[in-house]
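Exercise 7. Predict the joint structure of the components listed below.
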Amino acid sequence: MRESTASPLTKRKSSKRWTIHLFPIPALIIYGMFVLYPILAALSYSFFEWRGMARGDFIGFRNFVTLFTTEPYGSMFWNAFKHNILYFVVQMVVMNGLAFFLAFIIYQKIKGAEFFKAAFFLPRLLSVIVVGFLWKLILNPNFGTLNVLLERLGLETLQKAWLGDPGTALIAIILVNCWFGLGFGVLIFLAGFQGIPGELIEAAKLDGAKGFTLLRTIYLPLMVPSIMIMGILTFIQSFEAFELVYAMQGSMGEPYYSTDTLAVFFYRLAFGSSTASGTTAIGLGSALATVLFLFILICTTVFLRFANKKDVQM
Amino acid sequence: MKQGAIWVRPFYYLVVFTVATISLYPILLMILSSFKKSVDIYKDPLGFPTSFSLDTYRTLLSKIPFTTYFMNSIFVSIVSVVLIVVVCSLASFYIARFKFSWNHALFFIFLLGMMIPIKLGIVPLFILMRDLGLINSLWSLILMNTATGIPLSMLILTGFFKTMPYELEEAARIDGAGNLRVLWHVVLPLMRPALGTVVIINFIAAWNDFFFPLIFITEKMKRTIPVGMMSLFGEHSADWGSLFAGLTLASLPMILLFFIASKQFMEGLTAGAIK
Amino acid sequence: MKQKSKWLWLFLLIFVVALVGCTSNEKTTVSTTPDKEEGEKTEEISLTIGSWRTEDVAKYEKVIALFNEQHPDIHISFNPTKNTEYNTVLNTALQAGEGPDIFHLRPYAAGLKLAEAGYVEKINGLNGLSTFPEEALLASRDKEGNQYGVPINLSSTQFFYNKKIFKDNNLGVPTTWDEFIALNDQLLEKGITPIAMGTKEGWLLSLLHGIVGPAIYEGNDFYQAVLAGDKDFTDAKFIDSIQIMNDLKKYFPANSEGLGMDDIRTLFALEDAAMFPLGSWEIPVVLEMNPDLDLGYFPIPSKEGQKTVTTWVDGSFAINANSKNKEAAKVFLEFLTTKEFGELFVKEFSMISAIPGITSDDTLLNDISKSTANEATPYMWVTNFTGGDPTTKSLLESELQGMYLGQVTVEEVAAKVQENAKTWYTPFQK
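Solution:
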């Protein structure tokens, strides 16, 4: 069906209207000045030697070499990288999966749909600092709601120092992030569901499609754009995960680097640890940011290519 | 679906109720705790406050110019959102509805901003803002919010622009409408769900931004709510009741605004389906 | 629907215009007020102070008021940033050639990094510097002997204890290390948490080692040997001190791996734990939480009964090398060396002044202050080991955390700390 609508858009007309080329200019100017320029300027830092905050000589790729070959940086990098992957997988499955399902339920026109939409979205309104603080309290081993609740349910054996135990700290933070981001996913997926022309569903229903078949043959293919958006966003956010970890576990990814992520590692290098005695390694920090950037860039490109191809096939 | 119909609906309700409870509980906890005494929070974290007293709020509000912070936040957030919506609708319309050879590259350039921590560029940004004379100006925050909001907004808007049928647009063009008119009268009204999302997301981001105000704003009266509230935290690190009151004050305006405005957004969201 | 969206836009636009109106009004009123003042007084200089002490705004206002009694022409505003973000905010501004005129300098290596980069004004020969003892000035003096900051307060870490709990259980202040351990065991037997401490936040661990360590490796002798490079962290006594850290865990509260600063303070303040190994700055905070708490402290005794409290200079005030009002800033810094300031500081801040001989009405603080004069050992991790990347101090913190979680052995902690220190600490390199 894409074939029929995707007729090339009136090239004849648009070529006459050169003013159309003014459309992206305002966005480009603001974005170029306040995002692209400072980032590019800062990326160039990775090729210089830094002594504290003073820039030294151009040293080519030596910062990159140091980052991967010198301890403790090398093992810190891979440790954080693994955590980012877990971040992505859990968010994709738990947050996006649940968000898709919830959006589907709301789309079925249940009673109180407005209330539920608002309720799911409400956490997203809070500042991450507030979120971190609240959940730190809820997960507090001695006064926290979760452990108190477990105790009242007679499940004392399950009580834990959730954020202090390296076995649970990271997953707890990822789940808090899911709690935080769920409503946004619901919103995106719901907008996707609601963007599906009603006639298509009616036609399919007349053809006898129902339940799972309907979901698979009609909804899922038409939801690809929303799924794609959420996929890319979740990927990028997972690999840039910073604020919640920083708010809940500090810039060292405590306990014992068990919640460290690449962006936290970057912050630690570029700005020093948040305790009094921080030293900075701006060159290494910039090198790490460059690597992170290239990684996300390559993955997103591959993903977009893949998605575009699929798009055409349908 | 028919055989399942008996249990499917209750199951749906069970799911949404459970998730809604988990979503709302921490926020409720925050508001309830703000009325409690610190000792009670520790001794009985789940209990309801024994008495509702507004004293904590009164002392907090007497310590900071809350109205000023609130107006600063409102100003910064609204102007940022308006700018984002305007520049991004224009740019994403261009990218999604026309097939120029460079559009793919352009789209990609816009997405780059999401892939790198903007904090990295803080020193060049600071120098830029100083040269523009925007240190201690709310416009530095507006420009930053707009610039950092562009990638995500472009992604959402372009994605939805692409899914829209072309027929309506064609019809308008045959009637002789120019690009701006097509965008304003034909495309944007159909885009309300996506625009709603962009507005909400960027408003929240602008409202809650903590990093840039911290760096660019040193004058007390130019602070926005999150930074203004955070400055209280040091003073009350041991007084949890006050801390929760502070957190509530920092979050409440956003929650109230959401409820006032959400009718508009939610209407927008359902509008697409009714069509 | 089109109509509706138009109205929404219009509403937004009006709102924005109104707000722009409001803010520009504000601007004009702001700009007129200084004019008026200028009319009344000639040459008013404004200085800004940057600091991480957000909790001290009201107190610094009193300091400024006192300063203005002598220098009414210098107008000062105290603009602190949240502790955890202070470095980022200050460094960014300094790198761009901006920043407050006067700023709170982190002690020792961290602050000297800023000086090394040329952001801090030298204040060699500033009037009043001679009031301070050598050790206090060292916190902001570089290798060449240039002075950059005026030290403000000493911090000391020691064991606080709940006098009531001690009395109720017939316990006394320990005079030897063995007594200290026996005391802990007795408390444990009675079902009282002996030590309020948690291992979730790394900085608490280096702090605890700073208190307990000197009792194990015999305080200042070991420190001097480390300074000279005669002993290092492979020394058996140092390894013992790490082992002791591990052994103390059984006296910590339940779930100690998940407890942070706020939690342990609360435990102690609410009298759920008997002892609280922390810094002098906690006294007012704990007493604010529980004004009825009968608070005492003791220096930690070694096996032979030698007592130590661990001290360092916590912050100094320095002048921004890019400040346009350096002379006025120097006048303020000179004021910070005076007795009047020292007395006000002790009274208002409940901290130990870096100026010697200043006493306060608070007996607890006075006693601690005396201890810092007589029983002091430097907080080595802050005073000497904040170099390296990551710093030796933060490495120690992470590794101790790993040890408490059972992921690193005692010997490995010492070995890793030594390995890190060796990369930059010159006495270890010979």
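Discussion. The two ends of chain B are 25 Å apart (CA to CA).
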